[in-house]
Design goal:
By secondary structure, this protein is of the alpha+beta class. It has one domain (14-107). It starts with 13 loop residues before the first helix and ends in a 6-residue tail after the last strand. Strand 4 (75-76) and strand 5 form a beta hairpin. The chain has two helices and six strands, in the order αβββββαβ. The strands form two sheets. A four-stranded mixed β-sheet has the order 1-2-3-6. The chain has a two-stranded antiparallel sheet with strand order 4-5. It has helices at 14-32, 89-97; strands at 36-39, 48-51, 64-70, 75-76, 83-84, 102-107.
Length: 113
C-alpha cells in the first residue's frame, strides 16, 4: 500500500534559503570579529542579539539588536556605492526612543569562490 503525499505541504522558497544564509553569514562575521551572536527565537523583528567584547576579552555593556533582510538583488544609488533600503516608520520611532539604537543589516547576494 502506497501512502500519497498530503495535498498541501510547506515549501522551502528561495526567500527562506537566502534568509537562512543571511543569518549564517552575519553570525560568522560577528564570531570571527571576537564577539557573540545569539539567534532570537521570538523575534519581534529582531534576528540576532550581539554581545561585544573589548581587546582583552572582557564583555562590554549592552546588547546590539540586529534585524536582517535578505534579497537576491540590492538597490544601489546612482553611483553604485551605497545600498538603498526602506525602513519602517514604526522602527524609526522605536530607534529614537532607545538609547542603544537598532542596527538593520541588508543582505545581498554574495558569490563565494
Amino acid at each position: 500500500m502506497t501512502i500519497g503525499l498530503p495535498k498541501y505541504r510547506k515549501q522551502r522558497t528561495r526567500q527562506h534559503v537566502i534568509a537562512a544564509q543571511s543569518v549564517n553569514y552575519v553570525e560568522r562575521f560577528i564570531v570571527d570579529s571576537g564577539h557573540t551572536a545569539q539567534r532570537v527565537e521570538y523575534d519581534y523583528g529582531y534576528d540576532l542579539l550581539i554581545t561585544t567584547f573589548d581587546e582583552a576579552g572582557f564583555e562590554e555593556p549592552g546588547l546590539i539588536y540586529l534585524q536582517l533582510k535578505a534579497t537576491d538583488s540590492l538597490k544601489l544609488n546612482a553611483v553604485g556605492t551605497e545600498v538603498i533600503f526602506e525602513v519602517n516608520s514604526q522602527a524609526v520611532s522605536a530607534m529614537r526612543d532607545w538609547k542603544q539604537g537598532i542596527l538593520e543589516q541588508s543582505w545581498g547576494r554574495i558569490n563565494h569562490a
